[in-house]
Amino acid sequence: MRVFYFASGSDGLTRKLRDLIESAAPDSDITRYSSVEDLAAALLREVRPDGQGVAVLLCASRAELRKMLGLTSLLADMTRIVILPDRDADTISEGLKLLPNFFSYSDGNLADIGAVFKKISLKTT
Amino acid sequence: MAKILVVDDDEMICTLVARIAKKMGHEAEYALTIREGLAKIHAGSFDIVFQDVRLPDGNGLRVIPEIAASPAAPEIIIITGEGDADGAELAIRSGAWAYIEKPLQVDAIKLPLSRALQYREEKKKQKPLLLKREKIIGDSQPLNDCLNLMAQAANSDAPTLITGETGTGKDLFAQAIHENSRRCDGNFVVVDCAALPANLVESTLFGHMKGAFTGADKETTGLVKIADRGTLFLDEIGELPLAVQGAFLRVLEEHRFRPVGGSREMQSDFRLVAATNRDLPQMAKEGKFRQDLLFRLQAITIRLPPLRERPGDIGPLAFFFMTRFCDRYKTGAKPFSLELLEILATGHDWPGNVREFAHVIENIITTAGAAPVLYPEHLPIAFRVQAARHSVGQPKASGQDEAKENFPLGSLNDFRTRAMLEAEGHYLQNLMAHSRWDIKEACRLAGLSRPRLYALLQQHKIVRPG
Questions:
Q1: Which residue among B192, B450, B457 sits closest to A101, beta carbon to beta carbon?
Q2: What b/e string do you get for B235-246 counting C-beta neighbours within 10 Å, with b at 16 or more?
Q3: B101 in contact with A at a CB cutoff of 8 Å?
Q4: Looking at the structure, do residues B384 and B410 belong to the same domain, yes or no?
Q5: How confident is the model at residue B429 (pLDDT cuts 50, 70, 90)?
Q6: Yes or no, beta carbons of A92 and B455 under 8 Å apart
């Protein structure tokens, strides 16, 4: 399973989330992108087999989330897990525009994301 | 005064229905064959057509789409044989407004006739809707029927169930219902029931209080509340655990719920759209889906047709996706050769529907590269092989024919290309088996970049074994 992991920061959460993805689906092929531009370029470059791609998008700020909205059509056929920067109603509304299969918050329970990722990976492979 | 047409090979039935219609103040004509009936339908503007099933020149059900697509788009009432439940079901599924059984009773004719006319009047009064449907492509009758239902759904708050095979665009219809509804300024909240582990469903939907369970470090708002004044889209609702279905039914009826670990009820004014590719009535019979929830869900049901049932949309879809992918890959728009369009339209059943179609077009565009025109040669080899087999039809019996089938004699170039592609497919299979699907290792062994390897794997439809 091809995983496009977006995280612009280099904090503990970025590492923890990656570890979580790796342990939930050890066979997955994960590439991390630290800028929205790099992610966009990768999504454009790679023609993925139908339904094989998963995008895990850790958005550090509202501004980053808004930038991510520009990639909606490139992300269209992928499973999308979005981690929002805060719990503000406007942030949630913006995040929902990415039509995530699951979303959580950067201060949320990472175990939930791991469980969802595991279920998605089982479904995909 | 309405215009009624009766199509039946029994003249007595024709005159009976016509007499009743005239007594009700309408004009009536009749035809004794399908051919005669269609000629009258295309020449006149009938409001209602009574259509018999068994006619000397064919099955009356088969012409329902043609009647419905005629300029006046009359309502159709089917006349079936006595006790023919299958015929009745087929009539309704084919798009008829109602059916009546032979032998005909006067009331059995009058009632559906007045109801159909009343329905038609109301339909005429409705202002035509300008639907936002940018991503829903096509203009075929089956698709337009769905768009009409979508417009009805968008105009109401009734729970709506969208069914259809995978890849038919259930999510696009759900979004379009939201975008065309009065709730379009609210949130459109997707709940992917298939992605949620059973133990997370309830807290995800209804939210939870701090400390409600291990790991609940913060109070979290559930998706039902987030959908307040918006639309809640339960995708793959057939996957919703049975235990949660009961709780959700109550929420759907009362729009009130209690977060996990909470003591106070909350309210949410959400509108529900659900989708599934599973047979929910069958699941309900087997006790895997709650019958009462199913009843509530299907206030409006939209069954999306598979792509094979709307071949007329292949051309517009091909153009739409060609433009999208040529734009994405910055190659400039390219025309399709007629041969390629023909293969797309007739050489494949599209089990993966529009999603599969989009992927094939994307593949064609990337394979074509700088080529100015798109040809069948740009199709993935597996697809071409299947299309070729499809066009061959029945397997040949004689040894000579078999030989011809196995070794179709084309040009040497074609043969060489085919042989190379087959060899490439074998190589990739071996490569991936050898590298145990370690992409990095496979790229190293083959001397390929990762994107190129993915493109080749997709082209040859090679997927990791389950």
A1: B192
A2: bbbbbbeeebbe
A3: no
A4: yes
A5: confident
A6: no
Q: For residue B329, is it within any domain?
A: yes
CA distance A5 to chain B (A): 16
Instruction: Supply the DSSP symbol for A86.
Output: -
pLDDT at B405 over 60: no
Domain boundary among B239, B271, B305: B305
| Mutant choice from B135, B196, B325 vs A, greatest count of A C-beta within 10 A | B196
Interface test with B, best of A33, A43, A50 (most B CBs within 10 A): A50
pLDDT tens digits along B1-56:
899 999 999 999 999 999 999 999 999 999 999 999 999 998 888 999 999 988 99
| B413 burial via Cβ count (<10 Å: 0-12, 13-18, 19+) | exposed
| pLDDT tens-digit series, residues A76-90 | 889 999 999 999 999
Contact B454 A87 (CB under 8 A): no
Q: Is B130 part of a structural domain of the chain?
A: no
What's the number of domains chain B is made of? 3
Q: What is the CATH number of the domain that holds B364?
A: 1.10.8.60
pTM over 0.80: no
Q: Does domain A2-124 have CATH number 3.40.50.300?
A: no
A84-88, B150-154, B303-307, B399-403: range with lowest mean pLDDT: B399-403
B353 in the same domain as B281:
no
Whether A92 sits inside 8 A of B195 (CB atoms) is: no
* Residues B277 and B382 both lie in one domain: no
Are residues B271 and B328 located together in one domain of the fold?
A: no
Phi/psi at A111 (5° precision) = -60, -35
The CATH number assigned to the domain holding B56 equals 3.40.50.2300
User: Of B195, B215, B454, which is closest to A47 when you measure between CB atoms?
Assistant: B454
**In Å, how far is B146's CA from the nearest CA of chain A?**
22
Q: At a CB cut-off of 8 Å and minimum separation 6, what does B271 contact? A: B157, B159, B178, B181, B183, B227, B230, B231, B232
Contact A116 B197 (CB under 8 A): yes
In a domain, B132, yes or no: no
Whether B357 maps to a domain, the answer reads: yes
Given a cut of 50, is residue A39 above it in pLDDT? yes
Answer for the pair B359, B166: CB distance below 8 angstroms, yes or no. no
Helix (H, G, I), strand (E, B) or coil at A100: coil
Of B197, B439, B450, the CB nearest to A115: B197
Q: Residue B81: phi, psi to the nearest 5?
A: -70, 160
Q: Give contacts of B187 with chain A, Cβ < 8 Å.
A: 92-93, 96
Q: Do B187 and A50 touch (CB under 8 A)?
A: no
Considering the domain architecture, whether residues B292 and B318 belong to the same structural domain is answered as no
Cα distance from B439 to chain A (closest Cα, Å)? 7
How far is B417 from B434, CA to CA, in rounded Å? 25
- The verdict on a CB contact (< 8 Å) between B220 and A93 is no
User: What residue spans define the domains of chain A?
Assistant: 2-124
* B376 and B276 in a common domain: no
> 3-class DSSP state for residue B79?
strand
Handedness of CA B212, B217, B218, B220 (dihedral sign): negative
State whether B107 and B161 are in the same domain: no
Domain that holds residue B356: 309-459
Mean pLDDT confidence for A49-69 = 88
Within this chain, do residues B14 and B108 fall inside the same structural domain, yes or no? Answer: yes
- For residues A117 and A108, give the distance between their C-alpha atoms in angstroms, rounded to a whole number: 15
